[in-house]
Amino acid sequence: MKPVIVTIGVYxxxxxxxxxxxxxAQVDTFCDLxxxxxxxxxxxAFANSERLQQMLQEHSIRYVHFKDLAPSAILREMxxxxxxxxxxxxxxxxxxAPAFIEQYEQIHLADFDAPAFxxxxxxxxxxLALFCVEREAAxxxxxxxxxxxxxxxxxxxxxxxxx
Length: 163
Description:
By secondary structure, this protein is of the alpha/beta class. The protein is 40% helix and 13% strand. The chain has a single domain (4-160), classed as Protein-Tyrosine Phosphatase, Chain A. The longest helix is centred in the middle third of the chain and has 14 residues, at 73-86.
């Protein structure tokens, strides 16, 4: 049976909406793709690593962290400069800069072993959520990881966004 892959960000969700979206998608494995796992602001505090892991554990959703798939500080700065040029805030970004995509693919996905990645998640993984902070998947590197998995395994990807 092929796994189901969804992506989700934190922006735009309340804690309850976020959890309900994961439960509705029947997520059993939650993959955090952030380098730093803290969140600023009270509206996103539920996504701080410890709180998030506790919430997921209470609902029998396994949490895994893949820091090596998080963009480097240089890549994040590249995107930040592009956002500034576009006069777009990170929370409102709708797509990644082409240069970011190219560099992320070269640095993080050129040697990405998708079969090993899924194998590492284990046979008990049926519905995987790829997580970072951006609301729109196209504005986040999680969409690039998801696209690679879709391409490699012929999977369809669902992107969960707040209503």
